[in-house]
Amino acid sequence: MFAFSLLLGLLATRPVLGDTCWRNTTCSTITDTAFPGVWEDNIFAPESRLVSPESILSANDGVTIGSWNGSATLAANGSQLVFDFGKEVGGIIHLDFLVSGDSSGAVGIAFTEAKNWIGEWSDSSNGELVGPDGAIYANFTGPGKVSYVAPDERLRGGFRYVTLFLIADSASVDLSSIEIEIGFQPTWSNLKAYQGYFHSSDSLLNSIWYSGAYTLQTNAVPVHFGRWVPFLHTGWANNGTLGPGDTIIVDGAKRDRAVWPGDMGIAVPSTFVSVGDLDSVKNALQTMYDNQNADGSFPEAGPPLLQQGSDTYHMWTMIGTYNYLLYTNDTAFLAENYNGYLRAMDFIYGKVSAPGLLNVTGTRDWARWQTGFNMSEAQMILYRTLNTGSSLATWIGDADNSTLWLSRASSLQNATLEYCFDPSYGAFKDNATATTLHPQDANSMSVLFGLVGADSSTAQSISSRLTENWTPIGPDSPELPGNVSPFISSFELQAHLTIGQTERALELIRTSWGWYLNNPNGSQSTVIEGYLTNGTFGYRWSRGYDNDFSYVSHAHGWSSGPTSALTEYVLGLSITGRVGSTWSFAPQFGDLSFAEGGYVTSLGKFSASWVKSNSTTGQGGGKYSATVSTPAGTVGSLTLPVLQQGVQPIVSVDGHQVKTTWARKSGVVFDTVLVSDVKGGNHTIVVS
């Protein structure tokens, strides 16, 4: 039992919330969903900012003992009940209760994301091995009604379960109201106002798409509610300032609650196709530029943490700049920060030396075991940085640097293939030095970022080799053995799709993300930071980082890769020019019978669908139809799977047969044909 010296509660008056945004934030212009339909049933976001539990569990064994109907009793000292919200939530807890009896005391309040950790101690959020999070307390001094609102700094960013327990010599407590004041997505008055959607013939894939989207909502937080640094020795505090604006995207709901650019490499594309909240992205990037170091390097993480010393995360800020411009065409942001971008490029390319590879000296990274020297993962990220940097330079009118960076990318590609590729194994090794480790991250990125050609036998070899790491619940990452990293697996997933290995990619989603979504001990609504191959939640335990297995985040945006992958590859709708000025429709069927989806840019709505006829099996036989709707003034291309390998199909667009050319006829996976220069508008496509 806790000593009274640790009691931290205080009495407060409930703020008036209404149906507006969080506290004093400026409300977004987004007020309603862009694509209403049956798929909205998959949205996990609550209807209101005040959310009550769904059910009550026994604190002894976690078994459901009833629904929450606005009445429950803590009858004696030490009694406790667990309240299940049914999904991940986060914010400020509000309690109303009636005290009977003469003694003073407190109602203790403990939080946890996973069912494993329910009890009088909250799961861990404060910092690695610093001290226990413990609980907060609603104090009372005798009989009567009590209304308690947790102090702002005790906002709990992410949890599913709340344990309430009584500390009193001779009193009982009748609970009449338990509510969470939702603190995430602070500028939205309607938390269900998604600007993108996805729907298919597979209900599990649909749920996984929306679990990624909901995770990203929980990661969009008020800028003055980040994790406090230095970490507390006991308890927690979420009152750190993260950056400019009213809303900002962080790495996790519970922790670390700071801007981490590497995480944004997955989180931002998934945000774009689902929630559509790019204001949070802009503010996250701006805080990295605002805190750029004198030597041109970016911090590994934003304030108040401001962790330094990561060459890879430095480059992820640069890649994130490209992604943000691609999705928004915010040329004012680019102009304001371009000098900082140039300094950042000089900093990182200054580390390229003989034999033409990046020499990594900022060795902090995503949690992989070994880092430094000519590590192949960093070469892949630099290759992507140079290519996306060339596009940024073109967009701002810097032709000289655009050409220079493309040339440097080509040189880096040649050096990486020469010194880091292991031809005897058919995949990249972990470093230019002699090593038998063939990492998941570098190999996935080599295919996804195009360092090896998508239609090459090398890409197919890498894809096949990656599957050798698979377990029944996800890939065992060689560079972090014993762990499944949905972050790195998100890159792997997209790598398989890049080369048309659709069924392989869908299997990966179902076995890894599906395992967690259906796990009775998890949030069953979000995507997890990572887990062990033995099926427990002790991610990174082998590094000695997290002896407390409850430290893992169960709502981590870096794991939301399926959300963008299902939209951009399986549905096949992606933008290739700023805000969709140019676009592509390139569906991949796998074992699905239909898919549809869409998203919004400043140019307007983009949507698409495809349906296989009953006689269509896999990539051969029968026919299929599709629709594409894009804004007027845009131009796109259709890359359409053939019905029989090697046989050019008949393609009709809007009732008229059109000429097609082979888009790829390698015979490796499945052939496609290309229809070029398709003007924006509403189009119906039939392939037979």
TrEMBL record:
One Gene Ontology MF term: hydrolase activity, acting on glycosyl bonds
One Pfam family cited in the UniProt record for this chain: Bac_rhamnosid6H
Keyword tags: Glycosidase, Hydrolase, Signal
Signal peptide region: 1-18
GO biological process, one term: carbohydrate metabolic process
Gene3D superfamilies xref list: 1.50.10.10, Maltose phosphorylase, domain 3
InterPro entries: 6-hairpin_glycosidase_sf, 6hp_glycosidase-like_sf, Bac_rhamnosid6H
Claim: Transcription is one of the keywords in the record: no
Record domain Alpha-L-rhamnosidase six-hairpin glycosidase: where: 248-462
Name of the protein in its database record: Six-hairpin glycosidase-like protein
Source species: Coniella lustricola
